[in-house]
Every structure is written in C-alpha cells, then in structure tokens.
Amino acid sequence: MDKTPNKYLAFLIYAALALATLVAFEQTCRNEFVALDDAAYVTQNPHVKTGITRKSLIWAFTTPHSGNWHSLTWLSHMLDCHLFRLNPFWHHLTSLLLHIANTLLLFAVFKRMTHKLWQSAFVAAAFALHPLHVESVAWIAERKDVLSGFFWILTMAAYIRYAERPGLRRYLLVLLALCLGLMAKPMLVTLPFVLLLLDYWPLGRLQWRTQKVDQALQQPKSGSVGSHQSSLTRLIVEKIPLFVIVAVASVITFIVQQNAGAMRLAKSLSLNIRVANALVSYLGYIVKMFYPIQLAVFYPYPKTLYPDRAMLLLVLISVFALLWIRRRPWMIVGWLWYLGSLVPVLGLVQVGHQAMADRYTYVPLIGLFIIIAWGAPELLAKWRYHRIGLGISAVIVLTAMTVCTRMQVRHWQNDITLFGHAVKVTENNFIIHHIYGDMLFRKNRFDEAIIQFSEALRINPNDYEAHNGMGKTLLKQGKIEKAITHFAEALRLKPDDPRTIHSWGLALMAQGNLDEAIVYFNKVLRTEDWPDVYCNLGLVYTRQGKYDLAIQNYNEALRIDPDFVPAHEGLERTLLQQSNFKQAIRE
C-alpha cells in the first residue's frame, strides 16, 4: 500500500498543474471571437448580450436555442457579458479558468480514489495539456464543454464522499451535481455508467460472489470504501434516480435538436454509414491522441470507411481488457470509460455534418489516460531504473503536448487563421471551403473568397451555401447577372433558405427593383427576426422616400440588437434627410 502522499508535495503538484495549463493556453486570451457559433451564443445573441436580467433568465430556462437546451451554459455567457460586455479577453479567460479548475479537481478526485499520487498527477496533466482539448477551451461557444466537464468531475467527487459513507444528504449532492452538469451540456448522460465502473475500480464497492467467502474470513478495514461492498444489482438499483434523470435529459435533448432541424443530415446518411463512421471514429480519436497533428475545427465524412478493421481492433482490445479484469482492473475501467462516454457524440443519432470533432474527447480521453498512467509503471516495473525512466518519459510527453497545444491555440486567433488552417489540413471539405469563403467575403477579400466558393462547388456542386456565398461576392463586385444565376441555383437546391431569399432581395435592390426587394425581405421576416433584414428594408424605404417606414424598420433592428451599428447609421441618414438634426446627432 502507498504511503499517504506528502501534503506539501501534493500542493506543489497542484501549483505545477495550474501553471502548466496557463502556459499551454494563455494565448487564448488574446484571440478574438470566431464567427462559427460564437455569434449565435454570444456576439449576436441579444438575450445573452444584455447580461443577467429577469427577462434573460426566463429565456435561458424556457427557450431552446442553437439546437440545445442548456440553461447553465447561457447563464455563464450572460454573466460574462454582464461583467465584461463583449471583450473577448475575459470570455476566453473564463473558459481557461474553468479548464484549470477541472484539471485541479480531476487530480484531487483521482488522488482520493486511488491514493496514487503520480498516476493521478499524470492523468490530470494529460487532461490539462492535450492538444485535442484546445477546441473545448479556445472556442468560446464550447463553454459548455469545460462547464459540463467541471460538473462531471464534481459529481465524481460527490459520489466518492457518498461511497465512503452512504447517506441521503450525500446522495442528493450527487444528484444536484449531475443535474447542473446536464444543464450545461447533455454529455453527462453516460456518467451513471461511469460511476458503476468506479464502483469496481478504484472504489472497490462491487462484491463478486467469490469474495463473500473471503469477507467471512477477513473483514475490510473500517472506514475504507471497500467496507461498503455491494452486489452489482444493488449498485445498479442505487443509481436508478441517476438513470431516470439522464433518460429525461436524453429525451429533452432529442426533441429540442429534432425541432431545431439539427438531425436533418441523418436522413441522407444510412444507419450502416453512421455505424461504420462510429467504429472508425473510435480508432481515429486514439490515433489523434498519440499523434495530434492536422487538427481542424471540422472533419468531413470520409469517402471510404473501413469499419471491419476498426471493429476487429476494438474487439481485440476489449478481449484483452476482459482477460485482465481481475489483475488489471484499471484497464477495463479506462477502456469502457472511453467507449461509453463517446456514445452520445459518435453520430449514431447524427447531429450536424461532422464525422468527428476534437471537442468530443474532452471527457472520454480521461479513460485512455487512466490506462497509460497505470499501465506504464506496470510495464516497466522489472526495469531497475523504472522510476527515473517513467519520470523522464512523462516530462517529455507532457512537454510535447504543451508545445503542440500552444501551436494549435494560434490557429484559433481569428476566423481567417482558423478556417484557413482547416482548409490546409483536410481534404474534400466543401463546408469549410464555403465558410472560409464567407469569412474572406466579410473582410472584403472578394477574389480570395471566390476561389474558396469555387473549390466548395467543385467538391459539391449542390452546396447551396457556396452558391449563395458566390452570389453575394459577385454582387459586391457589381456582377449582378452572374450573382443572380448563383442565387437562383441556391434557391432551386433549397427554396426555403432565408439567407438566399435575403440575398435575392439584395440583388433585386441592386437592380433597382425596390418593390420586389421588399417582398423578398418580408418573406425572410416571416420565419426569421434578423436585424440586417430590417436594415435593408429601412434602406429601401429611404430610397423610396418613405421615411416613417424606414425609421420603423431601423428601430425594429435596434429592438433585436441595440448595438447594431448599421441600424444606427441608417437611422442617422434617414433622420438627416428629414432634417431631424437633434435625433440624428444622438444616433
């Protein structure tokens, strides 16, 4: 049995973990917001931008948004906006501090469960520094990852206290932590299963039938977790309230995402393809864990999948883990942790267009880190200098992780660096090509944008978003007829797309067909409440000399977003044309 770890040494490890995490991720605080989801979550979300108010609190708890119901995540973003407005430094710092807190809490939890100081420190350090976790920390819209991760580990901490001395109050704390985590992100739906794994190892609460005779001869030491051993059935029954909570959360998540249209892609992907991709992704994440290069914000579905090979390797690893279940319990626990916690994000129920995503590994990789942390010392146990070798190897590995993480964080500096990098490291990624083209369009780099939209259409001629982007770019260049051709194709592919309908209205406005443009803008407003559409309506009415209608639409835009600069500018011009200089100056 290990000696009780020196408190001062443990304190130094806490300090080293915090410092190393800060060194690896400090560049995130100098990064900007990115257009991908940050707009929907923060910068263009009027409910979040207003900060903590009675109205915004009601919205956070009652209204699904962006295909999710995660009220605690909304409260986190609202608090940042309440305190810091839209200064990205503080939003990034909040995510980084949560990641540091997760790291320290993870170390504390494993140290308490296993009484293994250095193995626990390695698990926490790998979790803190691995470049696959950059996406969760550096992407403000993924605040839900680090926030739900905090409550995942906090639930484990509460469960350890309950396992040591079961009682209603301690059990209620487990339920509370789990509920808060689910309110941050439904990824915690697999946590009750992980708690069952922890019952077996390292908590030792699972009593095998063969252990009953041993217990009759020798009782476990008083006060240890093992002194509360139970049968598997009893441990499962004990967790029924947890399973009920995650079942309810799963149903809510499914309904919300289905109503938001987030599962539309599943209709175009057969179950066979989704299962094949899930099997390949299991191995893909393992490869990226050991060889974290060419990481991107979006991975498209590969043209060729080899699920048979993936299945064979997964089965072999599982068989080895089962064969060693008694002698090396950490292996089966770590392996099943990894397999099980990835299930909600494997795409079996497809949400979004991605084949896999780095952010999905935030919690699952802990399982693999367990296998490495406990497996490496056993593998080298007979070597005379195994302690020195393990120490040097750990330093080298963690240093390499830190360097790779710092390099990956740089790609998240802004939209151009993020999507420009993704284009370089992925193939046949038409979605990233059209997103990158849109970012270049926003920077008025129209020739470069056309190259990206053209590449997207080469890969997928039916990419209606690329047609729309190409049309908008050509319209800015004054090539109205060519732009209309692309808008027409985009509408043919998706007749009800509000962005393309809006673009068609802009083309009509450029042609001077103002009445027709109004029809299309109003068509958008029947389904969407966008401030830029109101602004364009205001501009059309100003050109027609209908100043009262123009002012009305500019005010509607400001109702949605009080800080929307184009609305203030348009309102100013309209007021000046009415010779209303006092209000114009105010605008």
Low-confidence stretches: 211-224
Percent helix, as a range, is 55-70%
Our Rg estimate from Cα atoms comes to: 27 Å
What percentage of the residues does DSSP assign to strands (E)? under 5%
Q: Given the C-alpha coordinates, what overall shape results?
A: elongated
Q: Whole-number average pLDDT?
A: 91
Number of strands: 0
> Helices and strands: which structural class?
mainly alpha
Q: Could you give a quick summary of the protein structure above?
A:
This protein is mostly helical and about 575 residues long. It is built from 30 helices and no strands. It is elongated, with a radius of gyration of 27 Å.
Description:
The chain is mainly α and 587 residues long. The protein has a domain of 388 residues. 70% of the residues lie in helices and 0% in strands. The protein has 30 helices and no strands. The longest helix has 27 residues. The chain is elongated, with a radius of gyration of 27 Å. About 2% of the residues have low confidence.
